[in-house]
């Protein structure tokens, strides 16, 4: 850790780090699940257990894997439990009966600071997070003010002055707390990168920004340390969506983090995806960008308002837009449309993101899983003669190759020591299943050819030898074609 005149306080690598290495692995200081995930994920380890969850009988809001997780969380939840009950009693509607994940995470931070002691290393690490309250834009100030009022209400206080028991002695202290939280919050995600809440880690927050990051933050769920989940695993991370145009990235970085990025990838250069030649006539590209930006804004506007949409959490590019597009396509008339769209998404991401980037790896894994579900097209289908996606056995072969490549990228994006995380392990199991399916199908062709050969031996004809040769030749060609495909 050192301080740079241009980048401020941060972490620097002292040696080259191999792709797929886990740079750091730790449990965040604090995290909170999004409201819609409280009844499906454990509030202690953020897991989705195979068996049923245990519900807190007090607040009837949070759930746990088992009694061990419930006991481990009790020191904080006994305070949270009362706050959740009181909030629900005064909620104007059922939809607002649970505060946002941001409010709940802030509450847990303040309760733990008081338990640990304001002079403890845990509290000092939270207080050392960077605050930008002197440079906040009006919109950010408004959002932070709303968050502060909600926090005071959640803690059961009548005014901010009562926050003194949490070590907050002035309005400036409260503003610093909110600003530190908003600036340094990471999205808590599932192993497949779906945002399921918010998290805070002072150490991981020291990783500086790059528009072409050398590493990212993931929650892959290692099979080796289930009792220490959720584990954040991360050098340089991107604070914003790296697929946005330069002007929007610069605006977001300035508004939330108060700096102007100088890295090379911030430059706007348009190249041909195939030959990498620089495109000089950019009018059509700019028109496409404007249309795409309008679509992104519309997609953003329909996100769940119950979540921390006010927070500029450090998360992953294109994630929400891609998932929205896919969900809308589920209602299309063609079963192949999601596959074709998924393939286009991966091709677009592969032109923007490095090999092994978690977003790119997950997109390829989803494409492979879609291909693995064989849905032959009816002869009357308008896509009956379309070459992609293939149908029948060739589709299984395409799925296998796609998932092998996906596993390679998952091993980089989620760590080789983790075996690619939970998603990587699932893909490995799918590959084993596909290998068996392809083996059965190939063996069936072999048996068919052998039956034809046996039948030719029983033909009592003068030209039986010729017939046998023809069947043998035909069988060899057919079998070779099958294996090749």
Describe the structure.
With 485 residues, the protein is mostly helical. It folds into 2 domains: 2-234, no CATH class; 257-379 and 399-434. Helices cover 47% and strands 6% of the residues. The chain has 13 helices and 9 strands. The chain has helices spanning 67-90, 101-116, 121-127, 138-154, 171-184, 246-257, 283-301, 319-329, 337-352, 358-372, 393-413, 421-457, 464-484; strands at 2-4, 8-10, 25-26, 30-33, 54-55, 63-64, 185-189, 195-200, 232-233. Helix 1 (67-90) packs across helix 2 (101-116), helix 10 (358-372) packs parallel to helix 12 and helix 12 packs antiparallel against helix 13. The two termini are 53 Å apart.
Furnish the topology, listing elements before pairings.
Elements: E1 2-4, E2 8-10, E3 25-26, E4 30-33, E5 54-55, E6 63-64, H1 67-90, H2 101-116, H3 121-127, H4 138-154, H5 171-184, E7 185-189, E8 195-200, E9 232-233, H6 246-257, H7 283-301, H8 319-329, H9 337-352, H10 358-372, H11 393-413, H12 421-457, H13 464-484
């Amino acid at each position: 850790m050192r301080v740079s005149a241009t980048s401020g306080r941060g972490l620097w690598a002292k040696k080259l780090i191999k792709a797929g290495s886990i740079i750091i692995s730790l449990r965040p200081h604090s995290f909170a699940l999004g409201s819609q995930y409280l009844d499906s994920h454990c509030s202690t380890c953020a897991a989705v257990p195979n068996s049923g969850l245990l519900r807190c009988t007090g607040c009837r809001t949070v759930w746990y894997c088992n009694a061990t997780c419930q006991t481990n969380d009790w020191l904080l939840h006994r305070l949270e439990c009362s706050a959740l009950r009181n909030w629900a009693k005064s909620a104007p509607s059922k939809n607002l009966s649970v505060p946002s994940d941001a409010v709940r995470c802030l509450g847990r931070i303040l309760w733990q600071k008081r338990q640990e002691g304001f002079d403890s290393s845990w509290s000092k690490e939270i207080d050392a997070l960077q605050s930008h309250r002197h440079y906040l834009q009006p919109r950010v100030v408004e959002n932070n003010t709303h968050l502060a009022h909600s926090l005071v209400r959640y803690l059961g206080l009548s005014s901010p002055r009562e926050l003194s028991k949490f070590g907050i002695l002035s309005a400036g202290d409260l503003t610093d707390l909110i600003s530190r939280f908003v600036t340094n919050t990471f999205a808590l995600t599932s192993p497949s990168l779906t945002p399921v809440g918010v998290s805070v880690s002072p150490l991981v927050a020291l990783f500086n920004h790059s528009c072409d990051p050398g590493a990212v933050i993931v929650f892959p769920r290692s099979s080796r340390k289930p009792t220490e989940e959720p584990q954040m695993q991360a050098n340089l991370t991107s604070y914003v969506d790296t697929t946005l145009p330069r002007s929007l990235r610069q605006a977001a970085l300035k508004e939330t983090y108060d700096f102007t990025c100088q890295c090379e990838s911030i430059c706007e250069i348009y190249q041909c995806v195939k030959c990498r030649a620089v495109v000089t006539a950019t009018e059509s590209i700019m028109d496409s960008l404007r249309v795409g930006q309008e679509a992104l804004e519309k997609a953003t506007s329909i996100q769940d308002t119950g979540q921390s949409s006010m927070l500029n959490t450090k998360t992953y590019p294109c994630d929400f837009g891609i998932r929205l597009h896919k969900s809308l396509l589920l209602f299309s008339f063609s079963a192949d449309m999601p596959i074709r769209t998924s393939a286009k998404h991966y091709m677009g991401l592969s032109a923007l993101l490095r090999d092994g980037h978690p977003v790119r790896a997950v997109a390829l894994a989803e494409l492979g899983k879609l291909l693995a579900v064989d849905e032959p097209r009816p002869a009357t289908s308008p896509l009956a003669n379309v070459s992609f996606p293939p149908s029948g056995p060739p589709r299984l072969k395409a799925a296998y190759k796609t998932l092998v490549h996906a596993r390679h990228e998952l091993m980089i994006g989620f760590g080789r020591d983790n075996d690619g995380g939970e998603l990587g392990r699932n893909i490995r199991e799918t590959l084993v299943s596909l290998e068996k399916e392809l083996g059965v199908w190939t063996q069936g062709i072999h048996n068919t050819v052998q039956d034809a050969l046996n039948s030719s031996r029983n033909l009592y004809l003068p030209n039986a030898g010729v017939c046998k040769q023809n069947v043998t030749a035909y069988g060899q060609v057919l079998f070779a074609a099958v294996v090749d495909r």
